[in-house]
Design a protein that fits this description.
The complex is a heterotrimer of chains A (639), B (219) and C (245).
Chain A lengths: L15 H8 L5 H4 L3 E5 L3 H13 L2 E5 L17 E2 L11 H11 L6 H9 L1 H11 L24 E2 L5 H18 L3 E4 L2 E9 L2 E9 L5 E5 L2 E4 L20 H8 L4 E2 L4 E7 L22 E5 L16 E2 L1 H5 L9 H13 L11 E4 L1 H7 L1 H19 L8 E10 L2 E2 L12 E3 L17 H21 L13 H20 L5 H15 L6 H21 L11 H25 L23 H4 L1 E6 L8 E6 L14
Parallel strand pairs in A: 1-2, 1-9, 2-5, 9-17
Antiparallel strand pairs in A: 3-4, 6-7, 7-8, 10-16, 10-18, 11-15, 12-13, 12-14, 14-15, 18-19
Chain B lengths: L1 H5 L1 H27 L6 H13 L1 H31 L19 H24 L14 H9 L2 H28 L7 H30 L1
Helix pairs in contact in B: 2-4, 2-7, 2-8, 5-7, 7-8
Chain C lengths: L2 E7 L8 E7 L8 H14 L23 E2 L2 E2 L21 E5 L8 E3 L2 E2 L2 H8 L21 H11 L6 H5 L6 H12 L2 H4 L2 H14 L10 H5 L7 H12 L2
Parallel strand pairs in C: 1-5
Antiparallel strand pairs in C: 1-2, 3-4, 3-5, 6-7
Helix pairs in contact in C: 3-5, 5-7, 5-9, 7-9
Classes of the chains: A alpha+beta (639), B mainly alpha (219), C alpha+beta (245).
Chain lengths: 639, 219, 245
């Protein structure tokens, strides 16, 4: 049985990271040159890690499935990135950010990790500014901040609604510099299909070249997964359509534990589903809730245009239910509230699955120009997608699958249970507990990539300096390659009638219905059975067009969807196990009288870490007990 | 240094400078041409004589010839590079909004080149003594009467107009484009320059074109 | 509505390729253009036993820059200021024939059907589209104030998504708008000024070497850029380049 050792350093919260850095093993510069590291995925976390590792002197190989690492989905992050600079003099501090995140995550994250994320947040802003990220500035030339969902200080740095793009490109450019310098090598259009372990250590990966279908072996002394989240398991999500969970699942099947897979964030402000053909949902930044007011008509099924519904006929339900935070409640709360109103029949739009986000008052009070300066590009984006002009009519929004707090289990060094295998950014589970606060994802991804991993990976690699270059002609590589080829052949030879996408849609619907914003035992059990059935049907009736040794998007999809079945099963299994409500995980059986989530700290104050036990076997649950030494878990209240 | 000249932007820089220089020459030439409308041939021939003999003008003339040469050579080199940059063209064409005449610079430029050849044959080479005579009657040195004889021929006039229309179309894009290439871009001044360019591109060619028309119809 | 599609099909980069016509019925105006292609592919695979049309796309919200098709004589089709994934079928009418081509440029070779290789853009950034600051070497973020006007202009240039529309639309297949956007962003910030000369030299040199055409100030790139990157950036690139010598 795998033992979970989180390796959290002893000592006061604010000294843990400093002490840890001082005591960690080092690799001297001459030896770094001899060590190879594979980084899979190159978004905010992966590119920054790859660049920083290459700067240190390691040889880095970077793998992305897109044609360029500039396309990683971190690029779509909109609202901002948090840091505790306290430029606003509003009493912000590392501890306050730490506390906001721990509380926002409903006390299901590790104190030490979260504090470290807060502690290094300022370095990240320094780094990005030096790299040329054009953050918003005041007329004085100094950096500007705004407040962002779920907190009461203004600590969010932003570049209009394209903060993620600017930060991701800064990392991309830093990586480009290392590629030019010959310290990093880019392998674009590659899908990682398996992890190779030798003597229990991660030593390489098997990839499929998406241009010619070639199956390739790549060896290294350590492997870093920066492959993002798997929110696309819900089919419709705010993620890029090709985002997937296959690399993480491959690691899971090779022995890495998967932590809190059921903690999937449903983002409250997305463009609602418009029709059956839709392939994705567009996020509308949470920052819009700073000035937009959320409402539905007081009358059920009121289909009049918004402009005809008078002030007294509107139910500003967030302001009504949560007077202290109003429209700025955390994402999970806002999402559930929207679902609750719509389920009760108050929803707007043709489908009734939408609520209004109204800027009328903000425009009247602050003027159209001010609103335009703050959100102009988001308003334009909304208009492009829906043909509704948010300056004239309220936006219609609805929650959508967005971010997975869960991911590969990692220790304080960001290493998984497989020695030499690291998971950073959204791919790991570490910092957001049961719910992620706005503008903390870019922060965590960048922190992991720039400042944590480059330090902590030394602890493992220090013992590897005598290990020669990893050869890829070993039986382990051979077997992994054969497994991958077998899977592809199996997919190609089913030759059924249904498209991979049609299965994905059905799988997504099962998850959305039974394991979405609200869950209950009966539904989850039903979901388990339905997923199992669907998986069987998939392997009997999927049709993958084209050839395996060619560029073949259908095969890519089919391979990812095949993995989604296993991930979905894991999500539901985890949701079933957690007989409490916390953050994004809302079990209808466990709620307060007011319909708020009811945590059970006595029995469930742990991280669920699931171990793979074989195809179609129940995974084994390991519990990492969460210790709260510095804060006392309380019932979250945003009233 | 070689590398500097070799880059596309450097070539364009030189082309733009040469082009702008040529632009300053056109009004001068036009001014002299207007003397053709004077019934007395003397002022025109004197001006022509002055232009042909004054030492400073001689130097300017050399620069002018070099500018024409460089502008043409670089124009062709850059155009070839541009054609090579898209070996296969779109079968659905291009419906993008563009500065319309910019698409035809090589062709309008070619028209101007054809005119220059004719023009040189008619006037300039005679002046230099390179060409003995021209297919018109009269004294070779009397450019005034040479012009009158040519402009009385409808075919020559049509060629002349076509070529100057080509010049106009070339200028519509050329003037403002040169400033963009030189990096001279300004919030207030660029629109002013663009307006002046527009006016210039209409007035100068029309001025040139009006002279043969008047001579043909009224003289 | 019913439409006729004329789509460029090419097996691989060495294949000659050619147009193939497809009749597609029951297309909804609510579909995006790429959802229409998804729908076509579904039909090709499951009704006609044909190979699906390959095209790149990822975020489908206009920010990753992966998609990009030349539609009826314009990059990203007839709607203004959109990427191909944001183009909706409401831009077309029943009975329309829609010609779909890949980006055409020597520097963007076609890999399959509508998929092109835009590695050249990565090469351009590698040539110097960055500020050489190592992780950890950055000073305090507010130690160098940046005039708001410059920061805003840097942002306006920095929002380039690297989709290649500028190259696709330019009659010279020039990458000047792309290059100028990165040059401008970094030259406008004090942090980027230190390396501005070297950057301008290296990017322009690389741009020429990669086989892109040059700029004849036609303005198609600005007109078609889905992110509204301005030609003034190209003027700035020119200035920065002259300053570098």
């Amino acid at each position: 049985m795998t033992k979970l050792d989180s390796k959290i350093p002893e000592g006061p919260l604010s000294e843990k990271w400093t002490k840890h850095q001082a005591s960690i093993k080092l690799v001297n510069p001459a030896n770094k040159k001899k060590l190879d590291i594979i980084v899979v995925g190159a978004g905010a976390a992966g590119a920054s890690a790859a660049a920083s590792l290459a700067e240190l002197g390691y040889n880095v190989k970077v793998f992305v499935f897109q044609d360029s690492s500039r396309r990683a989905h971190s690029i779509a992050s909109q609202g901002g990135i948090n840091a505790t600079k306290n430029y606003k003099n509003d009493s912000d501090s590392d501890f306050r950010l730490f506390y906001d995140m721990i509380k926002g995550g409903d006390f299901r994250a590790r104190e030490a990790n979260v504090y470290r994320a807060a502690e290094i947040s300022n370095n990240i802003i320094d780094q990005y500014v030096a790299q040329g990220v054009p953050f918003a500035r005041e007329y004085s030339g100094y950096l500007s901040n705004r407040s962002f969902g779920g907190v009461q200080v203004s600590r969010t740095f932003y570049a209009q609604g394209q903060t993620g793009q600017q930060c991701t490109l800064a990392g991309y450019q830093a990586l480009a510099r290392q590629i030019k310098a010959g310290k990093a090598k880019m392998y674009a259009r590659r899908d990682m299909l398996d992890l190779v372990t030798i003597d229990g250590k991660a030593r390489g990966i098997i990839t499929r070249n998406l241009v010619n279908g070639e199956i390739e072996r790549h060896g290294a002394h350590a492997v870093v997964l920066a492959t993002g989240g798997f929110g696309t398991v819900y089919y419709l999500s705010t993620l890029a359509i090709n985002s997937n969970g296959s690399a993480a699942l491959a690691a899971y099947k090779k022995g890495a534990l998967m932590a809190n897979p059921s903690m999937a964030q449903i983002h409250p402000t997305c463009v609602p589903v418009l029709n059956d053909y839709q392939s994705k949902l567009t996020l509308m930044s949470e920052s819009l809730r700073n000035d937009g007011r959320v409402w539905v008509p007081k009358e059920k099924g009121d289909k009049r245009p918004a402009s005809e519904i008078k002030e007294e006929e509107r139910d500003y339900y967030l302001e009504r239910k949560y007077p202290a935070f109003g429209n700025l409640v955390p994402r999970d709360v806002a999402s559930r509230a929207a679902k609750e109103r719509c389920d009760e029949g108050y929803g707007v739009g043709e489908t009734g699955l939408a609520v209004y986000l109204d800027f009328r008052d903000a425009i009247n009070n602050q003027g159209k120009e001010t609103i335009k300066a703050k959100y102009g590009n988001l308003f334009d984006l909304y208009k492009k997608v829906t043909s509704i002009d948010p300056y004239e009519e309220p936006m219609r929004i609805y929650p959508a699958s967005h971010y997975t707090m869960g991911g590969l289990w990692v220790d304080y060094n960001l290493m998984t249970t497989i020695p030499g295998l690291y998971a950073i950014g959204e791919a790991n589970f570490s910092d957001h507990g049961a719910n992620r606060l706005g503008a903390s994802s870019l922060m965590q991804c960048s922190g992991d990539g720039y400042f944590i991993l480059p330090v902590t990976i030394g602890d493992f690699l220090a013992d590897e300096i005598r290990t020669p270059k990893i050869k890829t002609d070993t039986p382990e590589f051979e077997k992994a390659e054969k497994d991958v080829k077998d899977k592809i052949n199996r997919l190609m030879s089913v030759n059924g009638k249904q498209s991979p996408t049609s299965f994905h849609k059905r799988l997504g619907l099962i998850l959305w219905t039974y394991s979405g914003m609200k869950r209950n035992e009966e539904g989850l059990k039903k979901a388990l059975a339905e997923i199992k059935e669907l998986k069987e049907e998939f392997w009997k009736d999927v049709k993958v067009a084209g050839k395996a040794d060619d560029m073949n998007h259908e095969l890519e999809k089919a391979s990812r969807i095949a993995d989604f079945f296993d991930l979905a099963t894991l999500i539901v299994t985890d949701a079933l196990d957690r007989k409490e409500s916390c953050g994004a995980h809302f079990r209808e059986e466990y709620q307060t009288e007011e319909g708020e989530p009811k945590r059970d700290d006595k029995n469930f104050s742990y991280v669920s870490a699931w171990e793979y036990k074989g195809e179609d076997k129940e995974p084994e649950l390991h519990k990492e007990k969460l210790k709260f030494e510095f804060v006392t878990p309380i019932q979250r209240s945003y009233k | 240094m070689n590398k500097v000249i070799a880059s596309s932007i450097s070539k364009k820089f030189v082309m733009a400078l040469a082009g702008l220089f040529l632009l300053t020459f056109l009004p001068v030439h036009l001014g002299i041409n207007f003397l053709l409308l004077n019934p007395d041939p003397e002022p025109f021939n004197e001006a022509a004589e002055f232009m042909a003999t004054f030492p400073v003008i001689k130097i300017v003339e050399i620069i002018l010839m070099l500018a024409i040469l460089i502008h043409i050579i670089y124009g062709i080199v850059l155009q070839i590079q541009n054609w090579l940059a898209r070996p296969r063209r779109y079968s659905s064409g291009s419906k993008s909004k563009t500065s319309f005449f910019s698409k035809f610079m090589i062709w309008t430029g070619g028209t101007i080149f054809i005119f220059l050849v004719i023009h040189f044959l008619n006037f300039y080479f005679i002046k230099l003594g390179l060409v003995d005579g021209i297919p018109v009657e009269g004294e070779a040195e009397d450019f005034y009467s040479v012009a009158y004889q040519l402009f009385k021929k409808p075919v020559y006039n049509i060629i002349y107009w076509v070529c100057f229309a080509g010049l106009g179309l070339h200028l519509f894009h050329a003037f403002s484009s040169a400033f963009q290439t030189l990096g001279l871009n300004h919030r207030i001044w660029t629109p002013v320059i663009n307006f002046l360019a527009f006016v210039y591109a209409i007035i100068i060619p029309l001025g040139f074109m009006s002279i043969p028309l008047i001579i043909w119809l009224f003289k | 509505m019913n439409i006729t599609l004329k789509i460029w099909r090419q097996k691989n980069k060495d294949d000659k390729g050619g147009f193939v016509k497809y009749q597609l019925d029951n297309v909804s105006t609510e579909m995006t253009f790429l959802e229409m292609l998804d729908y076509l592919n579904e039909k090709l695979v499951h009704e006609d036993n044909d190979e699906p049309v390959a095209f790149d796309s990822d975020c489908r919200e206009g920010i990753c820059g992966a998609c990009g098709l030349y539609i009826n004589g314009r990059p990203n089709g007839p709607q203004e200021g959109v990427t191909t994934c944001q183009l909706t079928m409401s831009a077309f009418k029943d009975g329309d024939t829609i010609t779909v081509e890949p980006w055409r440029s020597k520097s963007f070779p076609v890999m399959k059907d509508l998929v092109v290789d835009r590695t050249a853009f990565d090469k351009l950034i590698e040539a110097g589209g960055y500020i050489s600051v190592n992780t950890g070497a950055a000073p305090e973020a507010n130690s160098i104030p940046v005039p708001k006007k410059n920061a805003d202009r840097a942002f306006d240039a920095g929002i380039c998504i690297g989709c290649g529309t500028c190259v696709a639309s330019c009659k010279n297949a020039s990458a000047m708008l792309f290059v100028s956007a990165k040059i401008s962003q970094l030259a406008l910030l004090p942090q980027g000024k230190v390396e501005a000369k070297e950057r301008a030299r290296n990017l322009v040199k690389t741009m020429d070497e990669l086989g892109f055409g040059n700029c004849s100030n036609t303005g198609a790139c600005e007109a078609e850029c889905p992110k509204d990157i301005k030609l003034t950036n190209i003027a700035r690139l020119n200035r920065e380049y002259y300053k570098a010598y």
